[in-house]
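Re: the 120-residue chain
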Amino acid sequence: QVQLVESGGGSAQAGGSLKLSCAASTDIFGRCGMGWYRQGSGQEHEPESRELVGFITVGGTRAYGERVEGRFTISRDNAARRMTLQMNSLKTDDTDRYYCAAECSGAWKWGQGIQVTVSS
């Protein structure tokens, strides 16, 4: 059973930075796309309603949500089984619960989520 564990959330001031990390319990990094999603206005128990923050394929191709383009950077280290999200120029609007996700041949796995709070 794959487990995804997020770390690094917490509080920051607007304009500041945070770095989120996601570690996987098994070696999925070599075959799964990985991403960060935020809860947004969707229901907590409806993963399909979450909003894309960033996604990175096995080959390293990246995609970002419109709200974070140019401010956040997603990276992955397959050997270390770790994915990170560098969050710069934070805005109060970035406050949300962030989830690590793995997409493996159409099947999705999710972490428990981690809170990010940005104050003005």
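The CA atoms of residues 72 and 87 lie 5 Å apart.
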